[in-house]
Amino acid sequence: MTTTADSRSDIPWVTQNHRLVRYEDAKISVMAPGLTFAALVFEGCRAYWSQARDDLLIFRLDEHMRRLAFSMSLLELDEPPSTEALVADILATLKANDFREDTYIRLQVYVDDWGSMTATAPTGSSVICRPRPRVADFEAGKPFIVSSWRRNGENASPPRVKASANYLNSRLAGLEAKRLGAGGAVLLNDDGTVSEGQGGCLFFLRDGVFVTPDGTSGILESVTRRTVLDIAGPLGIETEERPVGRTELYLAEEAFYCGTGQEIMPIVAFDGRQVGDGTPGPLTRRLQARYDAVVRGADDAPAAWCTPVYGDA
Ligand SMILES: Cc1ncc(COP(=O)(O)O)c(C=O)c1O
After folding, report:
1. What distances in angstroms separate CA 156 from CA 38, 112, 250, one per listed residue?
2. Which CATH number among 3.50.50.60, 3.90.1150.10, 1.10.760.10, 3.20.10.10 corresponds to the domain 137-295?
3. DSSP state, residue 81
4. Is 95 a catalytic residue?
5. Domain 8-131: which topology?
6. Atom 7, ligand 1: residue with shortest CA distance
7. How remote is the CA of residue 25 from the centroid of ligand 1, in Å?
8. pLDDT above 80: residue 2
9. Exposed, middle or buried, 256 (CB in 10 Å: 0-12/13-18/19+)?
């Protein structure tokens, strides 16, 4: 199947509880704790079509699965699904749909059926894959605001856990950005330091160094952020992970937002203050180009970063 639209009709097959079913037949109970109490953790991965390898390559699947295992451990499920079973589900779902284009994979694990807030069974899981081309703003970038909402704290609803419950915080910030005509929102921590955007991490260039809030700054441990840190060094681009103050964003020479969905998306303003000359900067462009090469299986990218879908068929 080759399509670039983004709708349900593009997803004939999904996996639910390790079985392939038609999208319209995948159901959960309306009283499932995964729904009523947001007892749900998930991953969002991307698979990229590689022309050179004539294959679909899942990017950094091991890292996504490790993060999911950690998120599941916080749910304290009686019977968490194994990594092997979930990886098999992902491969089966991609193959069943015969996707041969850039694809987004949502993998979710939750408490199903009926139960209380602390129910730990039964476990449900599902894998939904859909065509997802690159966002248009990859080229032009977007202006961001600093949200009036604060990031949920480590001791309340820890951002390190990829739980749907955390996305109320993201939604509030995202809605505020939308209302104000901005493309995204930066969330600050209660102490005023910068955490991340509503659905991705932040980097900004200051005095020639790309700075990103460190792992204890209320961020999700992003696979894309890790990738940027990994690819920058060999390009001769210096990076630094540290606590960041809000007004440092206003000093940025370049900036971008990064995540599996957005990849590396330039930020052209913070709170109406132009970043650099208001267009995506040259170092951001170099990182984007390298990112695009590694996700599509460039020869000099680590082999473990790309899991072939059809190659092992
Ligand atoms: C809140 C938040 N931060 C960061 C990220 C980026 O994480 P990753 O690069 O692993 O997709 C995401 C992406 O889903 C996110 O939702």
Report:
1. 14, 24, 29
2. 3.20.10.10
3. P
4. no
5. D-amino Acid Aminotransferase; Chain A, domain 1 (3.30.470)
6. 222
7. 29
8. no
9. buried
* Token code pair at residue 21: 């079913």
Q: What is the pLDDT of residues 269-302, one digit of tens each?
A: 999 999 999 999 999 999 999 999 999 999 899 9
Q: Which atom number of ligand 1 is nearest to the Cα of residue 196?
A: 3
Residue 194: strand pairing partners? 188
- Cα 237 to ligand 1 centre (Å): 22
- The C-alpha atoms of residue 88 and residue 101 are separated, in whole angstroms, by 20
Find the 200 Cα to ligand 1 centroid distance in Å.
Answer: 4
Which among 166, 260, 262 is the best mutation to test ligand 1's pocket, defined by most ligand atoms within 8 Å of the CB? 260
DSSP three-state, residue 141: coil
10 confidence band (pLDDT: 50, 70, 90):
confident
DSSP annotation of 245 reads B
Q: Which residue's alpha carbon is nearest to atom 3 within ligand 1?
A: 200
